[in-house]
Amino acid sequence: MQVAIALFPRNTALDAIGPYEVLQRIPSIDVVFVGQHRGEVRSDNGMLGLTCDASFDEVTRPDVLVFPGGVGTRALVEDTGVLDWIREVHRHTVFTTSVCTGSLLLGAAGLLTGLTAATHWRATELLESFGAIYTPDRVVEHLPQRIITAAGVSSGIDMALRLVELLVGPEAARASQLMIEYDPQPPFDAGALGKASDATVQLALEYYGQRS
């Protein structure tokens, strides 16, 4: 079973690497990183390079598509070549998925019209401009439509575990969870917008502004 994880300039690394770490633990799953061109792309802050091992043209029928997010999605929502590739790939996938602002690409491709969907909390209005209905849930699935979206960054791990359950089985998902020792016990409880104080939200926005 082939899982294609899309990469692009100014991606958010954990959006892609979180699902990768879960999915690549399963022997029956092969993960390929795809992009507009083979070779390295840099993360949203430019500090980390990830490698596309194949171009979009070379991967046309993956069983699963994972489209991560990052600042770079803002340019891709107007890239007709990427959007056409997503639409064509979705015709054949078992599941088409996104993490964080990767859902903007699914929305721009017309796959989320009228559906609830997750994204990063800063991109809710943009997501809804593509006809989706934002929900703050970490993972939102529409199995008849073969679409699953995840919220910001770390939620991609949760989504990938659910994918393993759907594709292979619950015990396989539990085994992958154990292999990566995914047992979150954070020292703070500010990991969702509804839980964060006004001061925390303001500081986060300031940090975003310094990185843009």
TrEMBL record:
InterPro entries: Class_I_gatase-like, DJ-1/PfpI, INH-QAR. It comes from the Bacteria. GO terms for biological process: regulation of DNA-templated transcription. It holds the Pfam family DJ-1_PfpI. Residues 2-165 form the DJ-1/PfpI domain. This is DJ-1/PfpI domain-containing protein. The lineage of its organism: Bacteria, Bacillati, Actinomycetota, Actinomycetes, Mycobacteriales.
